[in-house]
Specification:
There is one protein chain. Helices cover 29% and strands 24% of the residues. It contains 13 helices and 22 strands.
């Protein structure tokens, strides 16, 4: 096992000015940075690493036809792309990363186009298109209000790692200040008899596999309707990280996320102060909109022997560092392009389009669409879509699986990784038996962790293709670090990313050999109006 406290990319402790004696502040509740430091010091003593390496390729090199696809090349691509996000942070952006339509996504597009050209792809192009206005959190302040009754040395505590989960509405300059009310998981039982009107609600969210699926999805909006003037969602994600997870939108009130350590501090303060003087918090948020931005897709092409086509896609935009989401997807896309266009490679039966897309995280309120880059590609290239037998879309491969646990005696949360990667959700939207067999055979051969049941409904960038009736092969996962600043290259399994990309090369070759009729193209529905605009 590899302890996450040892991963340099995921800080589990923060350097802070020495704090006063615990009993003198906040009724003795340990500050997050103090608890993090103590845990970091104790962890390796109590849970020493076994030194087990991540799972590698389960076959001898002479039995593997894809040894030219190397993990070190894949991780270098990831590091190159993550460096662009790091520059966004260094430049002082409050919403940082490869934000769709912004300059850092454009840098990513330029990088991918250069790599496509170096791989010898044809018709390499960057296609720009206008994107919807980008809500932008310009500044914020999340502050627990001190009172002398909590201890003589108690001072306001500012949650520096709090992050807006909804960034479309500003507060008044003075912010929103109110008493805190803890609502547990926000279930009907938790809310029974509680008066939230005029208060700031704190809700705890339990991860269900990842921060994409968690118990607080949709909860801030419901708490807003119940009268809360602000919502803080405590995510069970360890360490000194910021988070912008799925499903925490508010309409007209300030809403923020807290990591597990900040949240534990706040929850304990609420409990301790309840019998003394209920704790209060002040929330400030100033937002703006970035208008007039242009997003871009990057295209590359390998001609085939027929007029049939396969489209491979991966989105370029991300929040924060975005290593698994989705630098690994881009690395996989680029490695497959190099594989199929390498010297001596047989010409594919079907033409192959490689597309790095923009706008994955963008919701266009004018037409309700997501993944604007995919929609734009389909609109511009209807002739390609008409000849496409299936779309291949892989998102977030190679992230090492994180195991969150608690000490049975102290209740202290901690986390390690195991030797495998996050299991992937698999979908073959038209349920073609031949296509599914080709995919599962490649998965079995390279022992890719997957969720063993599927409704074959594709998600992520695959959604617009599926809505248009185009068959999609979709593999996606989202782990603990999804949409957080903890999503760094250090949380990836390099051998796992290598295995995944080799397995997908094997699958795509097998699929290319399948005759058109077994792909069940006739199950496609007509392209919808949203695509034909």
């Amino acid at each position: 096992m590899l302890a996450l406290s040892l991963l340099s990319g995921v800080p589990l402790a923060v350097t802070a000015t020495p704090a006063p004696a615990p009993a003198a502040i906040w009724l003795g509740v340990l500050l997050p940075e103090v608890r993090q430091q103590q845990r970091s010091e104790r962890f390796e003593q109590k849970f020493p690493s076994l030194g087990v390496a991540p799972a590698g390729v389960p076959m001898a090199a002479q039995d593997d036809r894809y040894t030219h696809i190397r993990g070190e090349d894949l991780i270098q691509t990831v590091r190159d792309i993550v460096a662009i996000s790091a520059q966004s942070k260094a430049d002082g952006n409050t919403l940082w990363g490869r934000i769709s339509g912004g300059p850092y996504e454009r840098m990513t597009a330029d990088y991918l186009a250069q790599q496509f050209k170096a791989a010898g792809l044809q018709q390499v192009a960057i296609e720009t298109f206008p994107r919807a206005a980008q809500p932008w959190p310009a500044s914020w302040d999340v502050r627990l209000i001190a009172d002398a009754v909590y201890g003589a040395d108690t001072r306001d505590y500012r949650f520096d790692l709090a992050f807006p989960s909804s960034d479309e509405h500003s507060t008044a300059d003075e912010g929103s200040e109110a008493e805190l009310v803890y609502v547990g998981l926000g279930t009907a039982a938790d809310l029974a008899g509680r008066n939230l009107k005029g208060k700031i609600a704190v809700v705890h969210s339990v991860l269900q596999q990842s921060t994409f699926s968690h118990t607080a999805v949709g909860m801030p909006a419901r708490l807003e309707k119940a009268g809360a003037i602000g919502v803080l969602t405590v995510m069970e994600v360890p360490g000194a990280v910021q988070l912008k997870p799925f499903g925490l939108h508010c309409e007209n009130i300030p809403c923020f996320t807290l990591n597990q350590d900040d949240g534990r501090f706040l929850e304990e303060v609420i409990a301790k102060t309840a019998s003394v003087k209920p704790a209060r918090m002040r929330l400030k948020l100033k937002t703006e909109e970035k208008r007039g931005w242009s997003a871009q897709n990057v295209l590359g092409f390998i001609p085939g022997e027929s007029d049939e086509a396969v489209v491979l896609t991966a989105h370029m935009d991300s929040f924060f560092y975005g290593a698994s989401d989705n630098a690994t997807g881009i690395a996989n896309l680029l490695a497959l392009a190099r594989h199929f266009n390498r010297k001596g490679a047989p010409k594919p039966r079907r033409s192959m389009w490689f597309v790095g897309t923009s706008g994955h995280h963008v919701h266009d309120k004018t037409d309700g669409s997501y993944s604007n880059g995919v929609v734009n590609f389909m609109q511009r290239h209807a002739e390609v879509i008409d000849k496409t037998e299936f779309v291949f879309n892989a998102e977030h491969p190679g992230a090492q699986h994180t195991v969150a646990q608690r000490d049975l005696v102290t209740g202290e949360p901690w986390a390690t990784t195991n030797s495998l990667e996050n299991p992937m959700l698999v979908a073959v939207s038209n349920r073609s038996p031949a296509l599914l067999k080709a995919l599962t055979s490649a998965i079995d051969r390279y022992q890719i962790p997957v969720i063993t049941h599927s409704n074959h409904y594709p998600v992520g960038d695959a959604i617009p293709f599926h809505a248009a009736g185009v068959p999609v092969v979709n593999l996606i996962t989202s782990g603990t670090w999804y949409h957080s600043s903890g999503d760094t290259p250090e949380t990836l399994s390099v051998p796992g990313l290598e295995r995944f990309t080799r397995s997908m090369a094997s699958f795509l070759e097998a699929a290319d050999a399948l005759p058109r009729e077994v792909l069940e193209k006739d199950v496609r529905s007509p392209i919808k109006k949203a695509v034909q605009k």
